[in-house]
Amino acid sequence: MPSKKILIGAAAALMLLAAAYLATGAETGLVSDPASAAAPDTTGCIYPKEYMHSHHMQVLADWKEHAAHEGPDAVMTAPDGRRFQKDLATCLGCHSDNRQFCFSCHTYANVKPNCWNCHISPQDLP
Amino acid sequence: MNEERRTFMKKAGLGLMAGFGAAAIASSPLFERVAASAWAAAPKRPGTRWGMVIDTRRCREGCSACVDACRLSHNVPTFSDPRRRVEWIHREEGRALLGSACATQKLLPALCNHCEEPSCVRSCPTDSIFRRRDGIVAVDYHRCIGCRSCMLGCPYGEVSFNWSDPRPAITEPTPDYPTRQQGVVEKCNFCSDRLKRGLQPSCSSRCPEGAMTFGDLNDPDSAVRRLLASSDSMRRKPELGTEPKVYYII
Amino acid sequence: MFEKALKGNRAYWIWVAVLVLLAGAGVHGYRVQGAEGLASTGMGVGAVWGIYNAQLPFLAGLAASALFILVPERLMKQTGLSAAAPLSAFLAAVASAMSLLFLAAGFGMPSRIPTLFVNLSPSAPVSWYAPALLLYLLLSLGAGWSLLGARRKGTTPPRWLRALVVVAVPVGLALPVIAAFMLAVMPTHGLWTSAMLAPRILVSGLAAGMGLLLVMVVAMRRSAGAEEGRELAGRLSGYTAMAGLASLCFVGLDAGTAFLGNLPSETYALRLLYSDMAREALPVAYVPFAGLPSVLLASGAVSVLLLFLPAVRRGNLLPALAGLLIAVSAWFDRGPGLILAGQATPGGGEVYAPALPDMLVTIGIWAGGALLLTALLKVTLSVRRERGMA
């Protein structure tokens, strides 16, 4: 059946064209208005306590991605309108007063996150 | 007009043209002279474009304040083996840095150029090294797989790799900034952590002679643009078309 | 069907044991590297890529070479190539698998390998490499396996195999192109920024692939006693010779451009390879091998010439030996010769030479590849014998 062959050939050609287009440096990513850098808001938690108990890993994974790639543009807006700079410093702005903040739970649950391979652990501070 | 005279004029004209041609070739600059207007006439992208101008006339012999400040503020490890060296900013002889058009024997600071068309970015398989919206070429240390393609892609050799665990090699640890770990690359980030806090980069702010000026290249009133307008400047390997954003005034 | 690889005589098991031992040595080398970091290898500032990445372009070409058997056999009804089709598909699968292993061996953070597939950046050619290799591995393994299955049952291969081969064509041809483009984005390395790079990788991979197929066909003919391979061996000798000649022409074209244009980076790399310069640049232990590139280039050229002689082509062992030499020559030309010499710069410090861990890992991955190929060949051979007896 020639039509089948033509279809297969067209599909292959389309794939090649798409690959060529993408390989020649098609710019991806959206450009939006620069967000004004938000000052850390220390009046309350970014999410309810229960949500952070169960989902802090996802929040941290999202923050680290955006903080690394967008720098000052990485701003989170909480449901109540407060704005936070996505940055580990924002977290530690409140949570560094208790040195055991991360460790008490992680030790109990025998979880070994690799954050402190690079980030300076509060326990290592003088 | 006799025949002899005609041929003479022809030859003279040809000679004159050849002379002009040779002069044009000879006067074409060995290096790209970049005036501020060159950047302003063709802004590559809108928005903030962080850049740096290093006035090498002010750079003092034997001074390493910028290198020391950087090493201290970013927990950059110090390895004694030159094959394992990690550095964000280092000092190199002017001729090696900027080519034969630069006659100075002085050691000049060299750092990541935060190119507008970075070849390191095109060689990263995981998008771990990328150009940010403000023109800073940054590395995501959470994602870097350690393939070292960017080191080969960078024409300036400004990307370093952690061949072994960097933590024991950090002489004076700073708690304000993370370290890196074994197996990832690292390089200058134009102090994006300090910029976020409204501070100037460590190297330029600690330079005792004020030889390093940092600012927005897209802002016509910025200190960098005023400096570029006042003097001729050079960039490293401009012929590669990477559009470095670190300028040197000789 | 795989159980056939688990039955063999003494010589087979000794060969397998040696390969397993070498692969084990590779695992040990990798553990040392994992514990001490890449500082334990010969790599460092000035020699950023070592012997792992040096295998990649050659293996990409080798993997793509299977298309030049599978396409005529499956899509153009060249039944004379049928006996070689599963062999070439398996060779491609092994080359792709080894490429993936060599790619992974060179990473500083092997635990992050999933990011290669999750965080593709389309404008970086190297980003396409691992997905293409993985896809091609599956396609070639599937092609070889279904060809073999059909032969065992004595049926014609399934119709979908033709569609699979059609899909494999762009993927397979993309491998040498990606391998070339991932080097082309590195502007200061003259040897890598040539438009000839992709064709050179493809053609030398083709020469090596056909040469290795020739070796396999001759070896299987001897152990299986099948006489049907004589015409096939003749055809493969011809393909090897033609591809080898094209490859040699390309070597000449690139070298001619470099020296006539007096291109500093290219001529430096070529002098490093083919003149006495390597003697001074290499570490002392490796000085005796300084002449290796010239010897391999010459042996490849002589082998190509030999294969053009009808008297040699009619022989049995000599064509296989020539095919093997061409493969080794192509390996060096598009492997270590390209990557290691290409990143050396005048005054760029020490020339790379492998240390113990990277040497062990490299040997281990090659042994693993050979092990996989041995098992697949054993299955092929058993199937053929079975059919011969039936």
Provide the descriptors you would attach to this structure in a database record.
heterotrimer; A: 126 residues; mainly alpha; elongated; C: 390 residues; Formate dehydrogenase/DMSO reductase fold
Describe the 3D structure.
The complex is a heterotrimer of chains A (126), B (250) and C (390). With 126 residues, chain A is mainly alpha-helical. Chain A contains four helices and two strands. Helices cover 47% and strands 5% of the residues of chain A. In chain A, strands 1-2 form a two-stranded antiparallel sheet. In chain A, strand 1 (75-77) and strand 2 form a beta hairpin. Chain A is elongated, with a radius of gyration of 23 Å. The termini of chain A are far apart. Chain B has 250 residues and is of the alpha+beta class. Chain B is 29% helix and 14% strand. The longest helix of chain B has 25 residues, at 3-27. Helix content of chain C is 71%, strand content 0%. Chain C has 16 helices and no strands. The longest helix of chain C has 34 residues, at 356-389. The two termini of chain C are 17 Å apart. In chain C, 51% of the residues are buried. Chains in contact: A-B, A-C, B-C. The interface between A and B is medium-sized, with 20 and 23 residues.
Biggest contact:
B-C, 39 and 38 residues
Series of secondary-structure elements of chain A, N-terminal to C-terminal: HHEEHH
Radius of gyration of chain B: 22 Å
What structural class is derived from the secondary structure elements of chain A?
mainly alpha
With helices defined by DSSP (H or I, 4 residues minimum), what is the helix count of chain A? 4
As a percent range, the share of helical residues of chain A equals 40-55%
Number of separate strands of chain B:
9
The coarse overall form of chain A would be: elongated
Sheet with the most strands, sense and barrel status of chain A: 2 strands, antiparallel
Question: Which band does the percent of strand residues of chain A land in?
Answer: under 5%
* Average pLDDT level of chain A: 76
Quick rundown:
The complex is a heterotrimer of chains A (126), B (250) and C (390). With 126 residues, chain A is mostly helical. Chain A contains 4 helices and 2 strands, in the order ααββαα.
